[in-house]
Design brief:
The protein contains 28 helices and 54 strands. By secondary structure, the protein is an alpha+beta fold. The strands form 13 sheets. Strands 12, 17, 20, 21, 22, 23, 24 and 25 form an eight-stranded mixed β-sheet that branches. Strands 2, 3, 4, 5 and 8 form a five-stranded antiparallel β-sheet that branches. Strand 37 and strand 38 form a beta hairpin. The longest helix has 23 residues.
Length: about 1200
C-alpha cells in the first residue's frame, strides 16, 4: 500500500525532520478504521494501473472525475480548482522547490516538491497552504480533498497520481506523499507499456486537483489534538473510568432531558450531603455538566452506587441500569411534590388481553411500562417492530381459550395494546439476542431504520385518549459499536427543540450531521457514496457496520417545550451551588499552597497544654492531628526565610504571652528511638530553615520544638531562666540543673497526663522530687501515713524503670529532657521506702484495671484498636453494627471473648471469631481457640508466609453461637442445600450435628433449623451427595455423620409421590437414572443433578412432561433443553433423544446418565458480569 504522508513546516531547517512516513490515513474502511485489502482501493506505486488511452492528463474534467472519488462523509463541495505547474530542468533543481501560488476556497495554495526525495529514493510531492510563515490566521482550518498528478507534457496519457483528503491547519500546513514515485522509474526508462519515460527532456507537469469541502460540524477529519468541547460546542463530556461509556451515554441522555434534570434538582438533599447518597451525587454530576469547562468525572456517582473497581471495568446492560436508576430516584422523591414527576414523564400504560371472538368475554390487565423492547430481528423499520409488538395471536382449534363456566372453550385473540405513551419514550432495540444454534448471545447487525418522527397513535387501543396528538420526535440515539464481547457506547442527542445534533463520546462532544445520527446508525452493510453496498469489482459479502443504535429516545411533540424547558441557575439547589463554591475555594487554596509550598516550612510545637493532654509515651505524638487531638503538637506554617526571632513572636502571639518570656528547645531523636528536648535555641538570628538543617538527625519534614515559658522575670521584664541563662556579654551560663518532665498516672481514671517540667540539681536525691510533686499536684505538705509516691523513669516505651528514693539524680543518670512518671499508691512495708520495685520485676494483673504505671505503660505498648463486625451470613449485622474496641494485644483468646461478650451482652463462651480478607473485606476461616493464642498472634499469625499477607490486622468478624465453643468442638458443621419447586429453588443451611451422630440426626437438626414440616406432615426426604455437579451417592439414614465427605455438597429434597410409589413396588433397580446438566459438552457441567424415575415402554415425549414437572423448569427455559443419554464408556459422545425414543431402552446400563444440554444461566451471558446493583 502506498503511504499518505504529512510533511512538516516547509521552512524546517533539518531535512531529516521532513521525512514523516505514516500509514495511509485516508484510504480506510468505511467505518473510519483501517480495512482489509479486500475492502479498500489500494494505490501501489509498484503496480500502478496505466489509465486507458482515452484518459489524458490534459482532459482536466475527466481526470478530476477519475482522481477525486466520492467521499464517505459526503460533505458539500464548495469549490474545485485545478492548477498545473510545469517543472523544467528537473535534474538541476534544489532539494526542495515550491510551485506557483494559486487560490482555492479563498485561501492560497501551492505544491511542495522534493525532486529527489524527502530522505527517500522516491520523488516526494505535497500540497501546502500558501500563507507566509508568520501570516497564518489563528484557528484557521480548511478541509480539502486533493489529488496530485505527475505527467508527461509531450504525452498526457503517461501520468502517475495519488489522492488524499486532509484538514489543513496552522499546525498541519501540508499533506501529501513522501513516496510519490520511485526515481528509477521516472527518467530514461520507458513508462510501462510505452516507448517513452514519464519525465522527458528533464520536464514534467504537476497538476493539483483541489476540492474545498464544507466543514459543517467543525470537526471533519479533525485529529482532536487540543480540542476543547466547551469552546466548540458549549457542552462538556464525561470521563470514562474504564468501561463506563455505557453509563456516560445514558447519563448524557438523562441530563438533556431537561425536565428530568429539574426533577433531580428538587430531590431534598440538604440534610444528606453524603457521597453515599446517589441523588446527591447525581445532582452534583448534573451541576458540573452545567458549569464545568472540562470533562466531568463519574467517580462520585459510581461510588454512591456501591460499585467497586471491578464493576467499573464491566460493561452493564443499559436498560437495566436505566430502570434501576429511575427506581432509585423515584424512591428518593417519595413524600415530595415531585413524587409523581418521573412516572408522568417516562411511564406509559400497556394492556395485555385475551378477547373472545364470538362471545362478549375479555380477560385483560393494565400495567405500567418504562421502556419498550422492540425486536430488530425480522423487522426493517421501527414501525414494523411496533406492529410486530402488538400483533394478535389467534387461539383456536386445540389451543382455544377457556372463558369460564359460562362460555367454556372459545376462539379468542391474544395480544398487547398500548393505552398511553409517556412524554419521554425510551425504546430499547433488541440488538443482542440468544442464538439457539450457537447457544450464546449474539449481536444483530441487520440494517434497521428509525424515523426522525412518527405517530405512536397507530399502536394505541381504540378507547385511548386521542384529544392530543401522539406524534413523537427523535431526541436521542444511543449507539453500540463493536460486537458482544468488546464494544464502545456513545450517544447522539439534540439538546434543544431546534438546532444541532451533538455526539457525546465520553469526554468529547462534537457537532453531528443528520447522516451521522440516522444513516450511520441504522446498522447493516456499509454503503459507498454511490449507493452500492461495496465496489462492483469486489465479490465478497458486504462489509457490516460495527455501530448501530440500541436505544432511542423520542419526545412527544406536543410536550417538547415542557420536557426541554430551559434549566436556569434558579433551578439549581442553593446548597449545591454553595457547596461547589466552597470546594472551589478550598481547591484554589490547596493549589496556591502547593505552588508556595517550597517557600514554607512546617513547625510542630509542644506546649504545656498539649503535654498535659498527652496520654502516651514521650512528650507527644508528632503524627497526631491538632484539629482533632488536643495532645497533638501545634502546627505552624512559616516562611523558610523567617528568623527564629520571628518564629518566637509568632508562637507567643498565638499563645497570648509576651515573646520575651518563652524560648524554644530543639527536639532531637535519641539513640533509643525516643524524641526529647536537647537544648534551647539561644541565637535567634538564623532563619528557620538554617535551624532546621542544623537539627541533628531529624526524621520529620517539620522543625520540632518544645516551648518553655519562664516562671519569673526581672524588674525590667526580662525572663530569668534556671539554666542556659544568657549574659549581657553574650556568654551562656549552664549550671548543674537538669530539665525533667513529670507525668502522673491517675489510677482512678486510668490515664497518663503531663504535669509540667522541673529544674533540679543533679546532686539532689530522688526523694527530693516528692515535695515538688506534692506542690504541683496540690496534695498539701504530707501524704497520709498509708500512702506513698512511687517514681519511674520512662526510658523508652518498653523500658520503665523504678527509681530508688535515696539515689541521686546523677547516680540515676538523669539528664535534660528525661521523663519521670509518678503515682500515689498504698504504702507497703519495705526498707527501701519508695520506688523499691526493681527493673527486672514483671507486672502481674488479674483484671482490666492497672494498679501501677508500669502495667499501664505495658498496655500502651501493646494497645490495639480492633474493629468488630457481625458475620454477614452467620450473624445479624443490623442487630450488631460494627464497633471499635481498644484492646491489649497480649490478651488471650478467652479474654478477648470476655471483652466482646461484655460489649455485646452475650455469653463469651458462645463467641467465635473470623479473620478478615484484606482485599475483599469478607470473612476468612474461623479462628481456632488455643491455650497459647493471644490477640497479636490472631491478627498477625506467623509461620504461614505469603498466605497471611492478605489478612486485615485491625479487624475481626464474630459469630454468636447457640452453644459454647467447647460443645461446638463435639459437633460437625455440614452445609446442606434444600431443594424445592423441583430443582429450581435452592436454600442453604449450615447445620451442626454431633460427630458421633448419624444422617437421621442431621435430618432432625435440619428440620429444626430450617423450620421445615416433618416427614409425617409433608412427605419423605431424600438425602444425597453431589460432586462436581453429578449425583454421587444417596445417604442411608444410619450412615455416620463423621464419614460425610467435606468436599461434596449434601442435598435434601422431598421425594416426589410417583417415585415413592415406585420405591414401594421396587420392580427393577434399573428404573432409576442419574440426571446432570451440561452446556454443549458433557464436560462443561453445571446446575443441580438429581435422580429420575424411568418407566418401561414410555416414549420420550411423555417422559419430557414428567421431567418438566420433576425439574420445575417451565416455558422457554424447558423448551431450550436438549436431552441425551451419556454413557460412561463414550462420555464425550452423547446420544441425543427424539420424542419417539424410549429412555428405558436407550439407557439400559446402570452407568448411563441422562444429560440435559442447555446454557448455564448461573453465569452471566454478557461480559462475565454479575447482577447490576445500586446501593446509595
Amino acid at each position: 500500500m502506498d503511504d499518505v504522508h504529512h510533511h512538516p513546516e516547509a521552512l524546517s531547517p533539518s531535512p531529516n525532520a521532513m521525512l514523516v512516513d505514516q500509514p495511509e490515513e485516508h484510504v480506510v474502511g468505511p467505518n473510519g478504521t483501517a480495512a482489509d485489502n479486500d475492502d479498500i482501493a489500494i494505490i501501489n506505486p509498484d503496480s500502478m494501473d496505466i489509465t486507458p488511452d482515452p484518459l489524458l492528463a490534459t482532459d482536466y474534467d475527466a481526470m478530476k472525475e477519475h482522481v477525486l472519488t466520492p467521499l464517505v462523509e459526503e460533505p458539500q463541495i464548495l469549490e474545485d480548482v485545478v492548477s498545473t505547474w510545469t517543472v523544467d530542468s528537473w535534474r538541476t533543481l534544489g532539494k526542495k522547490e515550491h510551485g506557483p501560488v494559486f487560490e482555492a476556497g479563498g485561501y492560497p495554495w501551492r505544491v511542495l516538491l522534493f525532486p529527489f526525495g524527502n530522505n527517500v529514493d522516491q520523488a516526494s510531492i505535497y500540497l501546502e497552504h500558501g500563507f507566509e510563515a508568520n501570516n497564518v490566521p489563528e484557528d484557521w482550518s480548511c478541509c480539502v480533498q486533493f489529488a496530485l498528478v505527475l505527467w508527461n507534457p509531450n504525452d498526457p496519457s503517461i501520468f502517475s497520481y495519488h489522492a488524499a483528503h486532509h484538514r489543513f491547519t496552522k499546525e498541519e500546513s501540508d499533506w501529501g506523499f513522501t513516496r510519490f514515485l520511485e526515481l528509477r522509474k521516472m527518467f530514461n526508462v520507458p513508462w510501462e507499456n510505452r516507448d517513452r519515460p514519464l519525465i522527458e527532456n528533464d520536464t514534467a507537469n504537476i497538476t493539483a486537483y483541489v476540492r474545498i469541502v464544507e466543514d459543517e460540524t467543525g470537526v471533519l477529519w479533525h485529529n482532536f489534538n487540543n480540542y476543547d468541547s466547551k469552546k466548540e460546542t458549549g457542552y462538556v463530556g464525561l470521563k470514562n473510568q474504564g468501561a463506563t461509556c455505557y453509563l456516560n451515554s445514558l447519563l448524557q441522555s438523562l441530563y438533556f432531558t431537561n425536565a428530568f434534570r429539574k426533577a433531580i434538582y428538587h430531590i431534598p438533599t440538604q440534610q444528606d450531603e453524603s457521597m453515599t447518597n446517589s441523588a446527591y451525587t447525581l445532582q452534583r454530576l448534573f451541576y458540573q455538566l452545567q458549569t464545568s469547562n472540562a470533562a466531568v468525572g463519574t467517580n462520585e456517582l459510581t461510588k454512591s452506587f456501591g460499585w467497586e473497581t471491578r464493576h467499573i471495568f464491566e460493561q452493564q446492560d443499559v436498560q437495566e441500569l436505566s430502570r434501576k436508576l429511575m427506581e432509585r430516584m423515584e424512591d428518593k422523591m417519595k413524600g415530595t411534590e415531585y413524587e409523581k414527576v418521573l412516572p408522568q414523564m417516562f411511564s406509559g400504560k400497556i394492556k395485555t388481553y385475551i378477547s373472545c371472538i364470538n362471545v362478549p368475554y375479555e380477560s385483560s390487565r393494565i400495567e405500567d411500562f418504562w421502556d419498550v423492547q422492540l425486536n430488530v430481528s425480522g423487522n426493517k423499520h421501527l414501525l414494523e417492530s411496533f406492529q410486530d409488538y402488538i400483533n394478535v395471536e389467534k387461539l383456536d382449534g386445540e389451543n382455544q381459550y377457556f372463558a369460564g363456566e359460562q362460555y367454556k372453550l372459545q376462539d379468542a385473540n391474544k395480544g398487547v395494546i398500548f393505552n398511553s405513551f409517556p412524554d419521554v419514550l425510551h425504546l430499547q432495540l433488541k440488538r443482542f439476542e440468544y442464538d439457539v444454534e450457537r447457544d450464546t448471545m449474539m449481536k444483530i447487525n441487520d440494517r434497521y431504520e428509525f424515523p426522525e418522527s412518527f405517530d405512536a397513535g397507530l399502536y394505541l387501543d381504540k378507547d385511548a385518549d386521542r384529544s392530543e396528538s401522539w406524534e413523537y420526535e427523535l431526541h436521542g440515539v444511543l449507539v453500540h459499536s463493536g460486537d458482544l464481547n468488546a464494544g464502545h457506547y456513545y450517544a447522539f442527542l439534540k439538546p434543544n427543540k431546534e438546532g444541532w445534533w451533538y455526539k457525546y463520546d465520553d469526554d468529547k462532544v462534537t457537532k453531528a450531521t443528520r447522516r451521522e445520527v440516522l444513516e450511520d446508525n441504522f446498522g447493516g452493510p456499509f454503503k459507498t457514496p454511490n449507493g452500492q453496498l461495496r465496489p462492483l469489482n469486489q465479490k465478497k459479502a458486504p462489509l457490516m457496520r460495527p455501530n448501530s443504535a440500541y436505544m432511542l429516545v423520542y419526545i412527544r411533540k406536543s410536550r417538547l417545550d415542557k420536557i426541554l424547558t430551559p434549566v436556569t441557575a434558579d433551578d439549581t439547589p442553593k446548597h449545591l451551588q454553595q457547596r461547589f463554591e466552597e470546594e472551589m475555594a478550598a481547591r484554589e487554596a490547596r493549589r496556591k499552597e502547593r505552588e508556595e509550598q517550597h517557600l514554607f516550612l512546617g513547625v510542630k510545637v509542644i506546649t504545656e497544654s498539649t503535654f498535659e493532654e498527652h496520654d502516651g509515651t514521650d512528650l507527644t505524638n508528632f503524627d497526631a492531628n491538632p484539629d482533632t487531638d488536643p495532645s497533638a503538637p501545634r502546627y505552624y506554617r512559616v516562611l523558610r526565610t523567617s528568623t527564629m526571632q520571628d518564629l518566637v513572636k509568632y508562637i507567643a502571639e498565638d499563645l497570648e504571652v509576651d515573646s520575651r518570656v518563652i524560648r524554644l528547645w530543639i527536639m532531637v531523636n535519641r539513640q533509643n528511638k525516643t524524641i526529647r528536648p536537647d537544648q534551647p535555641v539561644m541565637d535567634l538570628r538564623p532563619t528557620v530553615e538554617e535551624t532546621y538543617n542544623r537539627a541533628a538527625a531529624h526524621r520529620d519534614h517539620a522543625l520540632r520544638v518544645w516551648v518553655e515559658e519562664a516562671d519569673s522575670v526581672s524588674a525590667d521584664g526580662e525572663p530569668v531562666w534556671p539554666t542556659y541563662q544568657g549574659q549581657a556579654n553574650g556568654v551562656i551560663v549552664k549550671n548543674d540543673l537538669i530539665l525533667l518532665f513529670l507525668k502522673w498516672f491517675d489510677t482512678d481514671n486510668q490515664r497518663l497526663s503531663g504535669i509540667g517540667h522541673v529544674y533540679i540539681s543533679k546532686e539532689k536525691k530522688v526523694e527530693d522530687l516528692v515535695p515538688i510533686i506534692m506542690e504541683k499536684m496540690g496534695w498539701g505538705d504530707k501524704l497520709p501515713s498509708d500512702e506513698k509516691i512511687q517514681l519511674w523513669e520512662e526510658i523508652k516505651p518498653n523500658m520503665i524503670e523504678g527509681l530508688k528514693a535515696k539515689s541521686t539524680l546523677k547516680t540515676a543518670e538523669l539528664q535534660d529532657g528525661d521523663i519521670l512518671c509518678f503515682q500515689r499508691m498504698a504504702e507497703r512495708k519495705s526498707r527501701l521506702g519508695l520506688g523499691e520495685r526493681g527493673a527486672a520485676e514483671e507486672p502481674s494483673r488479674t483484671s482490666d484495671r492497672f494498679e501501677d504505671a508500669r502495667e499501664y505503660y505495658d498496655f500502651l505498648l501493646n494497645k490495639k484498636t480492633v474493629k468488630f463486625h457481625a458475620h454477614p451470613t452467620k450473624c445479624d449485622p443490623e442487630k450488631y453494627p460494627a464497633f471499635d474496641l481498644v484492646l491489649n494485644a497480649k490478651m488471650s483468646y478467652d479474654k478477648l471473648a470476655e471483652k466482646l461478650g461484655e460489649r455485646l451482652g452475650v455469653d463469651p463462651t458462645h463467641l467465635r471469631f473470623y479473620t478478615v480478607n484484606a482485599t475483599t473485606g469478607n470473612p476468612r476461616t474461623a479462628i481456632r481457640r488455643g491455650p497459647n493464642q493471644n490477640l497479636n498472634s490472631i491478627l498477625n499469625p506467623v509461620g504461614y508466609g505469603q498466605i497471611n499477607n492478605n489478612q486485615r490486622v485491625d479487624a475481626l468478624y464474630f459469630e454468636i453461637l447457640d452453644m459454647s465453643l467447647a460443645e461446638l468442638d463435639t459437633k460437625k458443621s455440614i452445609k446442606i442445600t434444600v431443594l424445592s419447586e423441583g430443582i429450581t429453588k435452592e436454600d442453604q443451611y449450615d447445620v451442626l450435628v454431633a460427630k458421633n451422630g448419624q444422617v437421621v440426626d442431621l435430618l432432625d437438626a435440619l428440620i429444626k433449623k430450617a423450620k421445615l414440616p416433618s416427614e409425617e406432615e409433608a412427605g419423605k426426604f431424600r438425602i444425597y451427595e453431589v460432586s462436581n455437579h453429578k449425583f454421587f451417592r444417596e445417604l442411608d439414614r444410619i450412615y455416620p455423620v463423621i464419614s460425610i465427605n467435606d468436599y461434596t455438597t449434601v442435598v435434601v429434597e422431598r421425594i416426589p409421590q410417583e417415585e415413592l410409589e415406585a420405591m414401594q413396588e421396587a420392580k427393577d433397580t434399573n428404573q432409576w437414572i442419574s440426571v446432570f446438566h451440561f452446556q454443549s459438552e458433557p464436560g462443561r457441567m453445571h446446575g443441580m443433578p438429581f435422580r429420575f424415575l424411568v418407566k418401561e415402554g414410555e416414549k420420550f415425549s411423555e417422559t419430557k412432561k414428567r421431567l418438566e414437572k420433576r425439574t420445575g423448569l417451565k416455558g422457554k427455559s424447558f423448551e431450550k433443553i436438549k436431552f441425551c443419554v451419556v454413557k460412561r464408556a463414550s462420555y464425550s459422545r452423547p446420544t441425543y433423544l427424539e420424542d419417539d425414543d424410549i429412555l428405558w431402552e436407550v439407557a439400559a446400563s446402570e452407568d448411563d446418565f441422562l444429560g440435559l444440554d442447555h446454557a448455564d444461566r448461573s453465569r452471566s451471558l454478557r461480559n462475565g458480569t454479575g447482577d447490576l446493583f445500586l446501593k446509595g
